[in-house]
Amino acid sequence: MTSTLASSIPGLDEQTDVAVETRLIPPYNLILLDDDDHTYEYVIEMLRAVFGWSDERAYLHACEVDTSQRTILITTSKEHAELKQEQVHSYGPDHRIKGCSGSMTAIIEPA
Q1: Domains and CATH numbers, the chain
Q2: Which residues partner with 32 through β-bridges?
Q3: Of 5, 58, 65, 98, which cross-links 71 as Cys (Cβ 3.0–4.6 Å)?
Q4: Nearest to 40 by CA among 52, 32, 29
Q5: Cα–Cα distance measured from residue 13 to residue 1, given in angstroms and rounded to the nearest whole number
């Protein structure tokens, strides 16, 4: 993008073009992966706790991860995706399933 900024920058005349480069932060997807070690109730509970979502929105993601083997939870900056990934991974095992060894898996991919 090129803009004439003479009026806002002292010392520049009206004919001076200043190149202004705008760089956007690249977006990343946080993706929840399916497994057989967690119930729908667990997924809904975890998504409500980590993201503050309604039962309905969390249920829709639980259905999608079950049928498609994955669901995009959020598209955001890499740092925010990493924070939410850590929260998903630290949520803990599903107490409803005997032998459940831990949290669900979430991965980060460029959007």
Answers
A1: 25-110 (3.30.1390.10)
A2: 71, 106
A3: 65
A4: 32
A5: 19
Q: What is the pTM of this model?
A: 0.79
∠ CA(75), CA(91), CA(29), 5° rounding?
10
CB contact at 8 A, 29 and 81: yes
Q: Is residue 108 exposed (0-12), middle (13-18) or buried (19+ Cβ within 10 Å)? A: middle
Cβ proximity of 47 and 104 under 8 Å: no
The letter for the amino acid at 89 is H
What's the rounded mean pLDDT across residues 26-30?
97
Has residue 22 got a pLDDT over 90? no
pLDDT of residue 12: 56
**Exposure string (b/e) for 14-39, b if CB count within 10 Å is 16 or more?**
eeeeeeeeeeeeeebbbbbebeeebe
